[in-house]
Protein backbone atom coordinates (compact mmCIF):
# COMPACT_ATOMS: atom_id res chain seq x y z
CA UNK A 1 0.00 0.00 0.00
CA UNK A 2 1.30 3.44 -0.94
CA UNK A 3 1.26 5.94 1.94
CA UNK A 4 -0.61 9.16 1.12
CA UNK A 5 2.13 11.44 2.40
CA UNK A 6 4.76 9.50 0.48
CA UNK A 7 2.62 9.70 -2.68
CA UNK A 8 2.35 13.48 -2.32
CA UNK A 9 6.12 13.76 -2.05
CA UNK A 10 6.51 11.55 -5.13
CA UNK A 11 4.18 13.80 -7.13
CA UNK A 12 6.15 16.89 -6.03
CA UNK A 13 9.41 15.30 -7.14
CA UNK A 14 8.12 13.91 -10.44
CA UNK A 15 6.38 17.17 -11.33
CA UNK A 16 9.78 18.85 -11.53
CA UNK A 17 10.59 16.78 -14.64
CA UNK A 18 7.32 16.63 -16.58
CA UNK A 19 4.38 18.90 -17.32
CA UNK A 20 1.91 16.01 -17.63
CA UNK A 21 -0.65 15.52 -14.89
CA UNK A 22 0.29 12.54 -12.70
CA UNK A 23 -2.11 10.70 -10.39
CA UNK A 24 -1.32 8.04 -7.82
CA UNK A 25 -4.15 5.74 -6.73
CA UNK A 26 -4.31 3.34 -3.78
CA UNK A 27 -5.52 -0.26 -3.73
CA UNK A 28 -9.15 0.91 -3.60
CA UNK A 29 -8.84 3.13 -6.68
CA UNK A 30 -8.88 6.36 -4.68
CA UNK A 31 -6.63 9.14 -5.96
CA UNK A 32 -4.33 9.85 -2.99
CA UNK A 33 -2.00 12.30 -4.75
CA UNK A 34 -2.27 14.31 -7.94
CA UNK A 35 -0.75 17.28 -9.65
CA UNK A 36 -4.37 18.45 -9.96
CA UNK A 37 -5.07 18.82 -6.23
CA UNK A 38 -8.83 19.00 -6.77
CA UNK A 39 -8.84 15.34 -7.90
CA UNK A 40 -7.41 14.01 -4.63
CA UNK A 41 -9.97 11.85 -2.85
CA UNK A 42 -11.99 11.02 -5.97
CA UNK A 43 -12.58 7.49 -7.24
CA UNK A 44 -10.66 6.24 -10.30
CA UNK A 45 -12.58 3.40 -11.95
CA UNK A 46 -9.72 2.15 -14.13
CA UNK A 47 -7.27 2.07 -11.22
CA UNK A 48 -9.78 0.08 -9.16
CA UNK A 49 -10.21 -2.46 -11.97
CA UNK A 50 -6.45 -2.80 -12.42
CA UNK A 51 -5.92 -3.43 -8.70
CA UNK A 52 -8.67 -6.07 -8.57
CA UNK A 53 -7.99 -7.72 -11.95
CA UNK A 54 -5.12 -9.36 -13.77
CA UNK A 55 -4.08 -6.51 -16.04
CA UNK A 56 -0.94 -4.48 -15.33
CA UNK A 57 -1.81 -1.47 -17.47
CA UNK A 58 -4.64 0.09 -19.41
CA UNK A 59 -4.83 2.83 -21.99
CA UNK A 60 -7.80 5.20 -21.88
CA UNK A 61 -8.59 6.68 -25.30
CA UNK A 62 -10.75 9.64 -26.21
CA UNK A 63 -13.59 7.23 -26.88
CA UNK A 64 -13.36 5.87 -23.32
CA UNK A 65 -12.97 9.24 -21.60
CA UNK A 66 -16.74 9.80 -21.45
CA UNK A 67 -16.84 7.20 -18.66
CA UNK A 68 -15.48 9.71 -16.18
CA UNK A 69 -11.79 8.81 -16.58
CA UNK A 70 -9.44 11.17 -18.38
CA UNK A 71 -7.64 10.09 -21.54
CA UNK A 72 -4.22 8.69 -20.72
CA UNK A 73 -2.16 5.70 -19.49
CA UNK A 74 -2.56 3.88 -16.16
CA UNK A 75 -0.06 1.34 -14.87
CA UNK A 76 0.06 -0.90 -11.81
CA UNK A 77 2.98 -0.25 -9.45
CA UNK A 78 4.66 -3.40 -8.12
CA UNK A 79 7.06 -3.78 -5.20
CA UNK A 80 8.44 -7.26 -4.57
CA UNK A 81 5.87 -8.63 -7.06
CA UNK A 82 3.01 -7.20 -5.00
CA UNK A 83 0.53 -4.62 -6.32
CA UNK A 84 0.94 -1.43 -4.31
CA UNK A 85 -1.16 1.01 -6.32
CA UNK A 86 -1.60 2.59 -9.73
CA UNK A 87 0.13 5.52 -11.38
CA UNK A 88 -1.65 7.38 -14.18
CA UNK A 89 -0.66 10.07 -16.66
CA UNK A 90 -3.23 12.17 -18.49
CA UNK A 91 -2.77 12.94 -22.18
CA UNK A 92 -2.54 11.39 -25.63
CA UNK A 93 -1.53 7.73 -24.98
CA UNK A 94 0.71 7.60 -28.06
CA UNK A 95 2.62 10.64 -26.84
CA UNK A 96 2.87 9.86 -23.14
CA UNK A 97 3.48 6.09 -23.13
CA UNK A 98 7.32 6.40 -22.88
CA UNK A 99 6.96 8.97 -20.10
CA UNK A 100 4.43 6.78 -18.28
CA UNK A 101 6.84 3.83 -18.29
CA UNK A 102 9.62 5.99 -16.87
CA UNK A 103 7.30 7.39 -14.17
CA UNK A 104 6.12 3.87 -13.24
CA UNK A 105 9.73 2.68 -12.96
CA UNK A 106 10.68 5.74 -10.90
CA UNK A 107 7.80 5.19 -8.49
CA UNK A 108 8.70 1.51 -8.09
CA UNK A 109 12.36 2.32 -7.46
CA UNK A 110 11.48 4.95 -4.87
CA UNK A 111 9.07 2.58 -3.14
CA UNK A 112 11.69 -0.17 -3.11
CA UNK A 113 14.18 2.27 -1.59
CA UNK A 114 11.70 3.31 1.09
CA UNK A 115 11.03 -0.36 1.81
CA UNK A 116 14.77 -0.99 2.09
CA UNK A 117 15.17 1.94 4.50
CA UNK A 118 12.29 0.65 6.61
CA UNK A 119 13.75 -2.86 6.77
CA UNK A 120 17.16 -1.42 7.64
CA UNK A 121 15.66 0.56 10.49
CA UNK A 122 13.75 -2.40 11.95
CA UNK A 123 16.90 -3.71 13.63
CA UNK A 124 17.10 -0.49 15.68
CA UNK A 125 14.86 0.55 18.55
CA UNK A 126 12.56 3.54 18.07
CA UNK A 127 14.98 6.12 19.44
CA UNK A 128 17.74 4.81 17.19
CA UNK A 129 15.37 4.96 14.24
CA UNK A 130 14.57 8.56 15.08
CA UNK A 131 18.27 9.49 15.22
CA UNK A 132 19.00 7.70 11.93
CA UNK A 133 16.12 9.56 10.29
CA UNK A 134 17.44 12.90 11.55
CA UNK A 135 21.06 12.27 10.58
CA UNK A 136 20.84 10.40 7.29
CA UNK A 137 17.48 10.87 5.56
CA UNK A 138 17.56 13.61 2.91
CA UNK A 139 13.84 13.92 2.31
CA UNK A 140 12.06 13.56 5.65
CA UNK A 141 9.18 15.85 6.55
CA UNK A 142 7.90 16.92 9.94
CA UNK A 143 5.24 14.20 9.98
CA UNK A 144 7.96 11.52 9.67
CA UNK A 145 9.64 12.79 12.83
CA UNK A 146 6.45 13.53 14.74
CA UNK A 147 5.22 9.95 14.55
CA UNK A 148 8.38 8.83 16.39
CA UNK A 149 8.07 11.65 18.91
CA UNK A 150 4.51 10.56 19.68
CA UNK A 151 5.40 6.85 19.83
CA UNK A 152 8.28 7.56 22.23
CA UNK A 153 6.20 9.95 24.34
CA UNK A 154 8.78 12.69 23.86
CA UNK A 155 8.14 16.42 24.16
CA UNK A 156 8.55 17.74 20.62
CA UNK A 157 9.29 21.33 21.64
CA UNK A 158 11.72 20.42 24.42
CA UNK A 159 15.01 22.32 24.11
CA UNK A 160 17.78 19.90 23.15
CA UNK A 161 21.42 20.29 22.23
CA UNK A 162 23.44 17.93 20.02
CA UNK A 163 26.67 16.63 21.51
CA UNK A 164 29.17 14.80 19.31
CA UNK A 165 31.88 12.79 21.09
CA UNK A 166 34.95 11.53 19.24
CA UNK A 167 36.98 8.96 21.20
CA UNK A 168 40.37 8.42 19.60
CA UNK A 169 42.33 5.14 19.57
CA UNK A 170 39.88 3.57 22.00
CA UNK A 171 40.03 -0.13 22.80
CA UNK A 172 36.62 0.23 24.47
CA UNK A 173 33.68 -0.57 22.20
CA UNK A 174 31.33 2.16 21.09
CA UNK A 175 28.43 0.23 22.62
CA UNK A 176 30.15 0.24 26.01
CA UNK A 177 30.68 3.99 25.81
CA UNK A 178 27.11 4.46 24.72
CA UNK A 179 25.84 2.47 27.72
CA UNK A 180 27.85 4.75 30.01
CA UNK A 181 26.02 7.75 28.58
CA UNK A 182 22.59 6.09 28.89
CA UNK A 183 23.16 4.74 32.41
CA UNK A 184 24.14 8.18 33.68
CA UNK A 185 21.91 9.47 36.50
CA UNK A 186 21.51 12.74 34.58
CA UNK A 187 20.29 10.94 31.45
CA UNK A 188 16.63 11.77 30.84
CA UNK A 189 13.94 9.86 28.96
CA UNK A 190 13.79 13.00 26.79
CA UNK A 191 17.37 12.34 25.62
CA UNK A 192 18.45 10.05 22.80
CA UNK A 193 21.87 8.61 21.99
CA UNK A 194 23.29 6.79 18.97
CA UNK A 195 26.55 5.80 17.30
CA UNK A 196 27.07 7.47 13.93
CA UNK A 197 28.38 5.80 10.79
CA UNK A 198 31.75 7.43 11.48
CA UNK A 199 31.87 5.82 14.91
CA UNK A 200 31.15 9.02 16.85
CA UNK A 201 28.75 9.12 19.78
CA UNK A 202 25.92 11.61 19.32
CA UNK A 203 23.51 12.69 22.05
CA UNK A 204 20.54 14.96 21.70
CA UNK A 205 20.51 16.14 25.32
CA UNK A 206 17.39 17.74 26.71
CA UNK A 207 17.82 20.99 28.62
CA UNK A 208 14.93 21.49 31.03
CA UNK A 209 15.50 25.04 32.15
CA UNK A 210 13.56 28.36 32.07
CA UNK A 211 14.51 30.49 29.07
CA UNK A 212 15.77 33.26 31.36
CA UNK A 213 18.49 30.95 32.72
CA UNK A 214 19.15 28.62 29.81
CA UNK A 215 22.23 30.35 28.39
CA UNK A 216 23.94 30.61 31.76
CA UNK A 217 22.98 27.10 32.91
CA UNK A 218 23.16 24.81 29.89
CA UNK A 219 26.96 24.47 29.89
CA UNK A 220 26.87 23.55 33.56
CA UNK A 221 24.13 20.98 32.90
CA UNK A 222 26.10 19.40 30.07
CA UNK A 223 29.28 19.31 32.17
CA UNK A 224 27.33 17.66 35.00
CA UNK A 225 25.91 15.06 32.62
CA UNK A 226 29.29 14.24 31.06
CA UNK A 227 31.35 14.26 34.27
CA UNK A 228 31.19 10.51 35.05
CA UNK A 229 31.70 9.61 31.37
CA UNK A 230 34.79 11.83 31.14
CA UNK A 231 36.14 10.34 34.37
CA UNK A 232 35.80 6.86 32.91
CA UNK A 233 37.58 7.65 29.62
CA UNK A 234 40.36 9.50 31.46
CA UNK A 235 40.93 6.44 33.65
CA UNK A 236 40.93 4.30 30.48
CA UNK A 237 43.48 6.69 28.91
CA UNK A 238 41.13 7.48 26.01
CA UNK A 239 41.68 10.79 24.24
CA UNK A 240 38.46 12.54 23.31
CA UNK A 241 37.03 15.63 21.70
CA UNK A 242 33.53 16.84 22.51
CA UNK A 243 31.61 19.18 20.25
CA UNK A 244 28.43 20.85 21.52
CA UNK A 245 26.12 22.35 18.92
CA UNK A 246 23.52 25.13 19.22
CA UNK A 247 20.36 24.78 21.31
CA UNK A 248 17.25 23.76 19.37
CA UNK A 249 13.54 23.38 20.15
CA UNK A 250 12.38 22.51 16.61
CA UNK A 251 13.14 18.95 15.57
CA UNK A 252 13.32 19.98 11.90
CA UNK A 253 16.59 21.80 12.73
CA UNK A 254 18.25 18.96 14.64
CA UNK A 255 20.02 17.75 11.48
CA UNK A 256 21.61 21.14 10.83
CA UNK A 257 22.59 21.50 14.50
CA UNK A 258 24.36 18.13 14.25
CA UNK A 259 26.13 19.28 11.07
CA UNK A 260 27.52 22.22 13.04
CA UNK A 261 29.06 19.66 15.42
CA UNK A 262 30.60 17.86 12.43
CA UNK A 263 31.98 21.17 11.18
CA UNK A 264 33.75 21.67 14.52
CA UNK A 265 35.08 18.11 14.43
CA UNK A 266 36.61 18.73 11.01
CA UNK A 267 37.99 22.21 11.73
CA UNK A 268 39.13 22.29 15.36
CA UNK A 269 41.01 18.99 15.43
CA UNK A 270 42.23 18.91 19.02
CA UNK A 271 41.24 17.36 22.32
CA UNK A 272 38.87 19.13 24.67
CA UNK A 273 35.29 20.39 24.77
CA UNK A 274 34.08 22.96 22.27
CA UNK A 275 30.84 24.93 22.01
CA UNK A 276 29.57 26.05 18.62
CA UNK A 277 28.44 29.39 20.01
CA UNK A 278 32.13 30.17 20.63
CA UNK A 279 32.96 29.53 16.96
CA UNK A 280 30.12 31.27 15.12
CA UNK A 281 32.36 33.91 13.53
CA UNK A 282 34.88 31.29 12.42
CA UNK A 283 32.06 29.18 10.98
CA UNK A 284 30.56 32.10 9.03
CA UNK A 285 34.00 33.04 7.74
CA UNK A 286 34.53 29.47 6.57
CA UNK A 287 31.30 29.72 4.54
CA UNK A 288 32.53 32.73 2.56
CA UNK A 289 34.07 31.91 -0.82
CA UNK A 290 37.79 32.39 -1.42
CA UNK A 291 36.87 34.78 -4.23
CA UNK A 292 35.33 37.12 -1.67
CA UNK A 293 38.34 36.78 0.62
CA UNK A 294 40.73 37.43 -2.26
CA UNK A 295 38.83 40.58 -3.18
CA UNK A 296 39.24 41.88 0.38
CA UNK A 297 42.69 40.66 1.39
CA UNK A 298 44.78 39.67 -1.67
CA UNK A 299 46.61 42.98 -1.91
CA UNK A 300 47.66 42.82 1.74
CA UNK A 301 48.91 39.25 1.45
CA UNK A 302 50.96 40.07 -1.64
CA UNK A 303 52.47 43.32 -0.36
CA UNK A 304 53.13 42.54 3.31
CA UNK A 305 55.65 39.77 2.63
CA UNK A 306 56.12 36.26 3.99
CA UNK A 307 58.00 37.33 7.14
CA UNK A 308 55.07 39.49 8.24
CA UNK A 309 52.57 36.75 7.33
CA UNK A 310 54.43 34.11 9.37
CA UNK A 311 54.55 36.40 12.43
CA UNK A 312 50.91 37.35 11.93
CA UNK A 313 49.68 33.76 11.80
CA UNK A 314 51.63 32.73 14.89
CA UNK A 315 50.88 35.82 16.99
CA UNK A 316 47.21 36.39 16.13
CA UNK A 317 46.57 32.64 16.21
CA UNK A 318 47.91 32.48 19.78
CA UNK A 319 45.78 35.45 20.83
CA UNK A 320 42.63 33.96 19.29
CA UNK A 321 43.24 30.60 20.98
CA UNK A 322 43.71 32.31 24.34
CA UNK A 323 40.95 34.92 24.14
CA UNK A 324 43.46 37.77 23.73
CA UNK A 325 45.02 37.16 27.14
CA UNK A 326 48.69 38.14 26.69
CA UNK A 327 49.95 36.01 29.59
CA UNK A 328 48.20 32.86 28.37
CA UNK A 329 49.14 33.51 24.74
CA UNK A 330 52.84 33.95 25.57
CA UNK A 331 52.80 30.72 27.60
CA UNK A 332 51.05 29.01 24.69
CA UNK A 333 53.85 30.17 22.36
CA UNK A 334 56.56 29.41 24.96
CA UNK A 335 57.93 32.97 24.71
CA UNK A 336 58.25 35.82 27.18
CA UNK A 337 55.30 38.17 27.39
CA UNK A 338 57.47 41.09 26.25
CA UNK A 339 58.44 39.12 23.13
CA UNK A 340 54.79 38.60 22.31
CA UNK A 341 54.03 42.31 22.86
CA UNK A 342 56.94 43.22 20.56
CA UNK A 343 55.61 40.94 17.81
CA UNK A 344 52.10 42.32 18.23
CA UNK A 345 53.39 45.90 18.08
CA UNK A 346 54.95 45.17 14.69
CA UNK A 347 51.55 44.03 13.43
CA UNK A 348 49.68 46.96 14.98
CA UNK A 349 52.13 49.45 13.54
CA UNK A 350 51.82 48.19 9.96
CA UNK A 351 48.04 47.61 9.95
CA UNK A 352 47.25 50.64 12.16
CA UNK A 353 44.94 48.40 14.19
CA UNK A 354 44.77 47.26 17.80
CA UNK A 355 42.78 44.06 18.46
CA UNK A 356 43.22 44.52 22.23
CA UNK A 357 41.30 47.77 22.40
CA UNK A 358 38.98 47.99 19.39
CA UNK A 359 36.44 45.33 18.48
CA UNK A 360 36.20 46.27 14.79
CA UNK A 361 40.01 45.92 14.50
CA UNK A 362 39.79 42.50 16.13
CA UNK A 363 37.11 41.36 13.68
CA UNK A 364 39.16 42.52 10.69
CA UNK A 365 42.33 40.85 11.94
CA UNK A 366 40.54 37.58 12.67
CA UNK A 367 39.03 37.54 9.17
CA UNK A 368 42.49 38.17 7.71
CA UNK A 369 43.91 35.38 9.89
CA UNK A 370 41.33 32.82 8.70
CA UNK A 371 41.87 33.91 5.11
CA UNK A 372 45.62 33.25 5.44
CA UNK A 373 44.93 29.85 6.96
CA UNK A 374 42.65 28.86 4.08
CA UNK A 375 45.12 30.16 1.49
TrEMBL record:
Domain of life: Bacteria
Domain Putative sugar diacid recognition: 3-131
Residue stretches making up the PucR C-terminal helix-turn-helix domain: 312-356
Signal peptide: none
Record-given protein name: CdaR family transcriptional regulator
Protein's organism: Eisenbergiella porci
Amino acid sequence: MIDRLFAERLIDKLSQFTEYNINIMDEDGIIIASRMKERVGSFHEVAFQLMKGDEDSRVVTKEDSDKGVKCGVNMVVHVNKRKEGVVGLSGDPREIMPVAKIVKMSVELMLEYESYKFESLRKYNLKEQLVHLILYSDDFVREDLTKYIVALNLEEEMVRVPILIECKDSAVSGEKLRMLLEDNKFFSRQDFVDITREGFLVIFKSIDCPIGYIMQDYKYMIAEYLASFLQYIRNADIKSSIYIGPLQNDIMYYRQAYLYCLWMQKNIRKSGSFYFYDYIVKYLESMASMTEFHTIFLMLRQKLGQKFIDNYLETIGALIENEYNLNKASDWLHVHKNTLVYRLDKIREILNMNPLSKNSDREFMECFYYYLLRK
